[in-house]
Task: inverse folding
């Protein structure tokens, strides 16, 4: 490992923040931006997914919240929907053959409302025409004639019976519930006494006549229902002929205007049959005895109403529906009920459309997380997509939880493209655990969180800023302001060579900058307004950061920023609290002594160290042994700790610091406390990239600045992190003025040289480190430990008599 | 309280011109300062028929015959009396009059004598009951008989737009 001179390791000012030259935002494009720039893969997927018509090619739009996913989905779906025809209307009507299964009727767009209106008109006319037909003189005469005929028939029978009875001196007495035949004389019923006085033959004759007449009467009584039925049938036939005439005229025109739609004509035929078959029901009813028994004539005609489920009358293209609350009812539709006399009643008029109905023929955009967390929705959605039809059922019925008397409306054919918006983790979970998912959502549109920062993408970003400013009704943004925003996008991406595509944070920054600009009464947003917005955002979320800084300043949390210490180094840590992310220094110490080759990670032993952190410590332990004691027993026991750290420690970005602390402890060479270091290290001593480099540098810078920058303070970072540098302007300014330094290292020796201020030392031709170098002292200490251990081991063997 | 000097009796059956009978009786009661005594006349035919051992009732709606007994006759008479009484009560309430009820047969009137003895008696009846023994008995007790012609009453009701 070759060590570089310190001045070579210092990062030049221009590399600390890749600034953007002023950009002319120009005007917004005036049209929606399809997708953020640089999202070609996602764009292609969305274009493909929205255009392909085969089933199963629904889209899952992967991306983090705030990435503008909804707008992107709506824009792409809208673009495709504008090329598609307006889908038709759907109506539910009464099914006369199976009332529990309301029937669907499909119409060209706008025709559904017309049909509903036509049927309403028909009902109004029927309401008048039917009673009028029954009120007509002609009908009444015919009905009366039939009634008279029936009554005459009955009367004649009774007359005959009474005459026949009278011939035999028998009277027919009528009780409320029947008839009694008794012997009479001179119009008077005989009492028992009078009857017994009659001669025997008269008594026998009277009784025989009563038996005979009784049999005849019974025969007649048995025939009365038939007579009545016959009468009713004749009345019914009369009613039918009257109503057929009245209804036929009204329906003829309606059938003619829908002659091209066989289903509608069939339905109208069923309507006619139903009216004719129930003709008498449509006559004006007498007032009921009790109010709740009233059968409103409106309800009689309600069977002929039309439930216009979906109307696309006003649409000019295929629908694009976003359902923000994808509950089962909102997606699949529902059958409502009304409470009546303690019972829940429903009919086809109470069927309500769901988002699937409204989006049929177009696109339905749903949030994956919400769909998955609303009961029954996911299964119902998959079922609808698989069956390619939407069937309205109550979830309880579908899942057999309970059964109430309800409707089972005919399913409606479904031709909809679902765009499911969700996080990547959900996509992968669904792909892993739901066997149907990939069959139904064949198109994954994966939005990048950030894009490469090129001249083209930077210009596109400027256009995007103008478009969003226009959409949000903000002040125009000056060129310097746009440049500053581009720099912030790079900072948000955590990479000077990439630009964040997080749309919500962009909108927030634009909106807040506009606010600050308006506070200054300016006509446009300038660079300083962006800076103010950024600073204010940080300040609003900076409570914890301030507390940590205060505790360091007051020596509650011990951090040295001057002098040198053996076995003690300033590491750097990043805290992520919600949207706030900030760095701060943490003291890492190492102690060493003779032992059996263990590097003890106290964080892990106390169960405060995460797996990655533990791995980092194991790697540096292996690197240490391999480099300094390759041929000797590794006879060291070392302890590493993050001082005053009481929470979880995760990540391997402190492994360079830990390595240096160990080497300092072993060599006895002190480490500069005016420097902090971050980086991970591999087994060969190569320093590797870490995350949050900007926050870490700024965290140490803030502490040093608070204590007073003296030109010696600085941070050591992995060289591989140079591209990620997008430091705050004040940090850059301090470096520019020589008050602060940022060093980039590639090897552990470079880091060691910087931190100790002494050469790390390289092996000579004989493979030995210079004795006075840091590495030489480390090696000497480890060899000494090995020697001591051998002696101890030999002594142990002698004591045991081996 | 002094006893009224007159006693107005009205013979009622299910089939008579009830309203006219009531109104006539009421007029007389008001004129004489007395109250109306409603005599609801039984149809004796039921008892006669029930006394015969071989009579039976053939149900109007079909089904097996039932022996026509004294109990059945009582029930029929009771129902008829109740119906007449309900109609009369409604009329009394309508005209804000008070009346007493007596269930009687057309052939015997043991109470009649007690009711009219020592007073002026007025008996209002439908003309078709003129031949009933009760009318004869009333005459023998010097009651005034006021007969209402059923058909004439029906004609007056029709002319006045009232139900028959």
Result:
């Amino acid at each position: 490992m070759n060590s570089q001179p310190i001045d070579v390791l210092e990062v030049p000012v221009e590399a600390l923040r890749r600034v953007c030259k002023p950009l002319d935002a120009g005007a917004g494009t005036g049209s929606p931006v399809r997708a953020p720039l640089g999202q070609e893969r996602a764009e292609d997927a969305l274009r493909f997914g929205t255009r392909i018509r085969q089933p199963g090619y629904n889209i899952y739009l992967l991306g983090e919240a705030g990435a503008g996913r909804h707008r992107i989905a709506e824009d792409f779906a809208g673009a495709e929907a504008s090329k598609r025809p307006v889908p038709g209307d759907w109506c539910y009507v009464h099914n006369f053959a199976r009332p529990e299964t309301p029937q669907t009727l499909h119409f060209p767009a706008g025709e559904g409302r017309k049909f509903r209106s036509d049927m309403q008109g028909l009902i109004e006319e029927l309401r008048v025409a039917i009673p009028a037909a029954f009120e007509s003189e002609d009908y009444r005469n015919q009905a009366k004639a039939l009634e008279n005929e029936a009554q005459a028939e009955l009367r004649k029978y009774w007359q005959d019976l009474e005459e026949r009875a009278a011939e035999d001196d028998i009277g027919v007495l009528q009780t409320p519930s029947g008839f009694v035949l008794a012997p009479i004389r001179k119009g008077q019923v005989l009492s028992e006494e009078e009857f017994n006085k009659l001669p025997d033959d008269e008594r026998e004759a009277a009784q025989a006549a009563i038996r005979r007449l009784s049999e005849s009467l019974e025969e007649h009584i048995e025939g009365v229902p038939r007579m009545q039925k016959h009468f009713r049938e004749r009345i019914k036939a009369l009613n039918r002929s009257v109503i057929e005439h009245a209804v036929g005229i009204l329906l003829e025109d309606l059938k003619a205007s829908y002659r091209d739609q066989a289903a509608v004509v069939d339905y109208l035929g069923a309507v006619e049959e139903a009216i004719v078959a129930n003709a008498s029901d449509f006559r004006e009813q007498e007032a009921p005895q009790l109010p709740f028994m009233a059968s409103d004539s409106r309800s009689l005609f309600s069977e002929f109403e039309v439930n216009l489920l979906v109307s696309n009358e006003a649409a000019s293209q295929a629908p694009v529906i976003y359902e923000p609350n994808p509950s089962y009812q909102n997606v699949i539709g529902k059958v409502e009920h009304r409470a009546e006399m303690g019972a829940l009643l429903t009919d086809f008029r109470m069927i309500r459309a769901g988002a699937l109905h409204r989006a049929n023929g177009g696109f339905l955009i749903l949030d994956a997380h919400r769909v998955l967390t609303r009961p029954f929705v996911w299964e119902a959605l998959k079922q609808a997509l698989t069956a390619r039809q939407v069937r309205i059922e109550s979830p309880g019925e579908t899942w057999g939880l309970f059964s109430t008397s309800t409707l089972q409306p005919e399913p409606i054919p479904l031709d909809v493209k679902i765009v499911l918006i969700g996080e990547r983790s959900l996509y992968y979970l669904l792909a892993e655990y739901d066997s149907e998912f990939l069959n139904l959502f064949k198109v994954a549109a994966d939005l990048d969180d950030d894009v490469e920062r090129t001249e083209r993408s930077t210009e596109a970003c400027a256009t995007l800023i103008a478009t969003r400013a226009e959409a949000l009704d903000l002040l125009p943004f000056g060129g310097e302001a746009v440049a500053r925003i581009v720099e912030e996008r790079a900072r948000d991406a955590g990479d000077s060579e990439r630009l964040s595509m997080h749309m919500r944070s962009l909108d927030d920054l634009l909106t807040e900058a506009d606010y600050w600009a308006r506070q200054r009464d300016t006509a446009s947003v300038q660079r300083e307004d962006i800076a103010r917005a950024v600073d204010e955002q940080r300040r609003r979320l900076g409570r914890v950061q301030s507390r940590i800084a205060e505790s360091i300043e007051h020596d509650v949390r011990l951090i040295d920023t001057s002098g040198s210490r053996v076995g003690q180094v300033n590491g750097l840590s990043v805290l992520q609290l919600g949207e706030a992310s900030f760095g701060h220094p943490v003291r890492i110490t190492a102690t060493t002594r003779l032992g059996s080759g263990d590097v003890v990670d106290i964080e892990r032993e106390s169960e405060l160290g995460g797996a990655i952190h533990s791995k980092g410590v194991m790697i540096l332990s292996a690197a240490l042994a391999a480099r300094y004691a390759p041929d000797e027993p590794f006879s060291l026991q070392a302890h590493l700790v993050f001082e005053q750290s009481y929470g979880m420690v995760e990540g391997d970005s402190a492994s360079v610091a830990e390595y240096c602390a160990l080497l300092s402890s072993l060599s006895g060479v002190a480490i500069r406390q005016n420097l902090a270091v971050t980086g991970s290290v591999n087994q060969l001593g190569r320093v590797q990239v870490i995350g949050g480099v900007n926050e870490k540098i700024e965290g140490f810078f803030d502490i040093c600045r608070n204590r007073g920058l003296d030109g010696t303070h600085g941070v050591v970072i992995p060289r591989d992190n140079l591209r990620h540098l997008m430091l705050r302007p004040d940090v850059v300014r301090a470096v520019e003025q020589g008050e602060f330094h940022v060093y980039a290292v590639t090897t552990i020796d470079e880091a060691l040289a910087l931190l100790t201020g002494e050469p790390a030392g390289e092996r000579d031709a004989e493979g030995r480190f210079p004795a006075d170098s840091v590495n030489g002292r480390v090696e000497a200490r480890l060899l000494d430990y090995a020697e001591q251990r051998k002696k101890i081991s030999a002594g142990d063997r002698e004591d045991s008599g081996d | 309280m002094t006893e009224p000097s007159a006693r107005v009796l009205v013979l009622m059956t299910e089939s008579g011109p009830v309203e006219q009978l009531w109104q006539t009786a009421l007029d007389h009661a008001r004129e004489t300062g007395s109250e109306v005594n409603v005599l609801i006349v039984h149809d004796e035919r039921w008892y006669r028929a029930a006394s015969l051992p071989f009579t039976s009732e053939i149900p109007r709606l079909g089904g097996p015959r039932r022996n026509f007994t004294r109990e059945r006759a009582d029930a029929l008479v009771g129902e008829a009396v109740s119906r007449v009484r309900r109609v009369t009560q409604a009329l009394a309430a309508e005209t804000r009059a008070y009346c007493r009820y007596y269930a009687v047969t057309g052939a015997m009137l043991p109470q009649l004598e007690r009711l009219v003895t020592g007073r002026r008696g007025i008996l209002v009846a439908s003309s078709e009951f003129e031949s009933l023994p009760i009318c004869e008995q009333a005459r023998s007790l010097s009651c005034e008989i006021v007969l209402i012609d059923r058909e004439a009453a029906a004609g007056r009701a029709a002319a006045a737009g009232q139900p028959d």
